[in-house]
From TrEMBL:
Residues 3-51 form the HNH nuclease domain. Keywords: Endonuclease, Hydrolase, Nuclease. Coiled coil: none annotated. The keyword Hydrolase applies. One of its GO terms (molecular function) is endonuclease activity. This is HNH endonuclease.
Length: 95
């Protein structure tokens, strides 16, 4: 309940509001990569995000999400000038 309340009832990865009974607990640093079961290493997540994150470290997870987002936006808006400008800005911020 403490972890759920700390997250204000939201998945810390996607921001969606979730019911307490639908919450899953994610290890920020997976135990398979040396993470512990301490409260400081646990976070509130929805099942979808927890399943997708799996055994990734936070930076690896967010990099993967960004790759997927950029790829899908490129497919959908690749020829539009607004996307070309936005994509250039996003890539410059990631460096």
């Amino acid at each position: 309940m403490m972890i759920y309340n700390q997250a204000d009832g939201r998945c810390v990865l996607c921001g969606r509001k979730i019911k307490y009974e639908d919450m899953t607990i994610d290890h920020i640093r997976p135990t398979s990569l040396g993470g512990s079961d301490s409260v400081e290493n646990l976070q509130c997540t929805c099942r979808t995000c927890n399943t997708f994150k799996d055994k990734m470290l936070p930076d690896t997870f967010f990099d993967r999400i960004n790759e997927i987002y950029l790829y899908q936006m490129q497919r959908k808006y690749g020829k539009k000038l607004k996307w070309k400008l936005a994509n250039k800005l996003i890539k410059s911020m990631a460096r």
